[in-house]
Amino acid sequence: MKTSTKGHRFQNLRHVIQYSRSEKVFITSLIPFQSVDWDKSLKKTGRPRGAQANRDRLKDSIKRKLSVIQYPHCIYCGIHTELVGNLQRDHIAPKEIYLEFIFEAENLVLACAGCNGFIKKNNFDTISRYNKNDYTKCTFKIIHPYRDRFQDHLDFDENLFVKPKKYSRKGKLNISLFELDGVMQTMHRSAALIKRALDGKLTPAQKALCNKIRMKEYGF
Asked: What integer pLDDT is reported at residue 217 of this predicted model?
């Protein structure tokens, strides 16, 4: 699996997962989707025998493919799995609200437990303009990693301090929703810089920033 040597990176995803022919056939066989189809038992649901095993294999395949695409970093806070722990499959448009998009490739990402948990994103309705029949025609309140460029919505000083671009509602919402300017997220990004420093991989700008912080905090 491809992985990143960086502890933090905001990502603009250029590739979506590609389903195999058999995976496409299986997904089609589930239409219309039921609320149990993603993570509940499929027994006594009318699904054919073996559907649950096929579903679980499909979810494992989705996670493996997304891990390669994301290197693997949380898509929302940008922190590497080594710092935030195991990444979870997440639906950008929450499956609890938009059941029809549970296997939509462009709706699937990996996120850390913190960003994807009850306190932050959870079931937050991310869609601002909804089209039931065509995901590509939906518009979103947050920065969409497949459609938007983080650079258009966020300013970040060597990936340590984060603030929204002027007039960017998506940037402001991402920072608020995922607490990107909070103490914990800043500490994770600081840890990422320390790791790069120990590995001798800091850029000149990052070195200057670390020296600036050191002088401010410790007076030397």
From this structure: 46
